[in-house]
Amino acid sequence: MAMSDTATTSPRPKRPFGTFLSLLWADKFAFVAMLFLLVVIFCAIFGPWLMSDAAGSLNLRGRNAPPFQLDLGWAMILGADSLGRPLLPRVIIAAQNTMMVAAGAVVFSMIIGTTLGMIAGYSRGRLGQIIPRLADVIMSFPSLLLAVIVLYMLEPSVSNIIIVLAITRIPVYLRTARAEVLEIRERMFVQAAKVMGASTGRIIFRHILPVVLPTLVTIATLDFAFVMLAESSLSFLGIGIQAPEVTWGLMVAQGRAYLTNAWWLSFWPGLAIILTTLSLNLISHWLRIALDPAQRWRLEMGGRKNG
Amino acid sequence: MADHLLEVQNLSVEFHTAQGTVKAVQDVSWHLDRGETLAILGESGSGKSVSASAVMNLIDMPPGRISQGRILLDGRDLLKMTDEERRRINGKRIAMVFQDPLAHLNPVYTVGWQIAEIMCVHGTAREKARAHALALLERVGMPEPEAALDKYPHQFSGGQRQRLMIAMAVAMKPDILIADEPTTALDVTVQAEVLSLMQELQRETGMGILLITHDLGVVAEIADRVVVMNGGRIVETGDAAEVYRNPQHPYTKKLIGAAPGKGQMPEEMDRDGEPLLSVQMLRKNYGAFQALKGVSFNIMQGETVAVVGESGSGKSTLARAILRLEEPDGGKALYRGRDLVSMDLKELFSLRRDIQMVFQDPTQSLNPRMTVFQLISEAWVIHPQILPKPHWRARVAELLTKVGLHPEMAQRYPHQFSGGQRQRIAIARALAMEPSLIICDEAVSALDVSIQAQVIELLDGLRREFGLSYLFIAHDLPVVRDFADRVIVMKAGQIVEEGAVRQVFEAPREDYTRALLAASLDPDPEVQAARREARRKMETAAA
Q: Which of A131, A163, A290, B445 is the most exposed place for a label (fewest CB within 10 A)?
């Protein structure tokens, strides 16, 4: 929202997208991370459509086939699982469910948590008292137990997993947003906006949210990994994703039994989780600098030393 | 030259930043003798604190680097000592008092413990240290010193905290006391007390005081010699009175010329007719504490009314209650006959643009994530009827020019400006609303003297141009004397005196007003000496 305003009034009009790219290019780590994420997103969208046949085909001669051998075909390059299904296509198609669950849970919990947290932080009335207690209730419950109970009663499906995981992660955003708003609310520029007659909505979205957001985005990227692993523990218990659907977390869990003789079963999906999380972290770090006018020069001057 | 207590010779300090190397001080030399007070006078960014930091080994290296020079304490070069040796000197032979005592006292320990700690660090037994701490608290004039030992820092007032800091500093009977803006955060009356305490201690122990300040008044009050700094260099040095009377360097002349409180006081204006704002018996309570106990006054069109008083007198609460940033508990505030207090939010919204506010600290009152253009044009986003969108750019440029900034600066962010420029942006933002009343809450207190003068001049010009009225809240009396038409003196939530500027300053009726005036510092050392005398007489008369 701020970008478009700036762009239209700038004396030397820049295209926002061009600025975005040059800022991204300035931080090479973030640039690589962004490329990797684009690949993951591509796999998530088109993977099942391109690869589901290859991923589902059993080859009993190739059970637990080791990686880097081409004699069973290109699909076996990363090895095969205990039923002889090739790992590479499976990692690719698993991206869809994994990303859906993780991104869905993170985005929902972030939106709901932030909204509730900002209301709790900004309103001086009873809402400000009730909402944090709500978070306490959720937090006082072991989140896995909550998930087990809910999924036991509901059908274990991708959407239900998203809902359950989102609920258990809401308090993190709620508490952070509330704490930050409580502090920012008293800052002078918020008072100044009030004096100008700005509406509550404008104060919250235009003045408070941009200051809170970088913190929340950083938490969200960390949460992304947590949610992926939480989903794998649910799947491990049999109430998460149901076969033949597959996720990275589930693949890691399934490979556990074979760790001593076929490490690659868990290794490749695990690597995918690590790289995705790492990329998100690098991007959130870059985003925090790029969004802060007082820090942006670090990128604009060529990104020799940022951090 | 080896007989000086502390001598800094040709000191240069650089800081490595992303924008390149910044030379914080260049080739600075000064010396301090026993029993003498040396003031380093300068505005923000002049490098006045840097040499003191170098003496105390407080410069972070890197990014800082001392590129040349020597610091001699009794003829020994501090810069050649090991860290261990310097730690033994810090606190024991050289002690320091900071601007913000709350930030430098640990909130989780009692003050008795903290004072004793300093002595323990330098090898005194715990029990003995406690007894000594009690004596120190008595010495710095802490009421009920026995009880104070077991209190925590937040239980003291600002002035008392500064006394605590001084007690901690003099605990080891240092030879040198470095005071970095020791009274800037304090009320005028408290400031005078703290300064005189420092002088008394100096007379008793014969220590040398190095005072870092931006305030000519403080220099006039206690300094023997003064070093004037600008842009990292010493521009002038000499006897304090001599430098004031006969400044050599153009910068010093400018600084002294900018000191407020010398202008002609305005004649009382005609106050007939309908007041612009009429505040009647305004009250505000925080629980059992009465912040405003029924305050009434009028502001006429085109008039500047100043509200003065010490911290806690309710002057900021008054401004916030008028603007309904705090809901008042009673009374009326009639703006052109319409009551702001009982008004519903919708009606208040339409009146918002008529009464604007300029805050004390422009660093905080401007949203750091908005450009200057966005900051100023926000007024028209909120109140679209003022100006249609196609005219925004031209009008922002016009407003920026009006407050003395370049129109090209519209795309920059607040952090790219200096403090004075930021306050100009805040004023431009207030003007964008086309208000008829601007409430300035300590609007110039955070600014350097020369910039303060410029901002006051700007406000004064805008008043004449647009017929603006100001409610000018300040603790700095000389500024009020120059700028205001009328003065309201507040104490403990009540108005104790009200009148035209000339009457209040020249013939104050109330003791409290007289005490305030006596405590305020004049930049002229001779005037200050006379005031000191008058204050002493008042104290003896009171006792």
A: B445
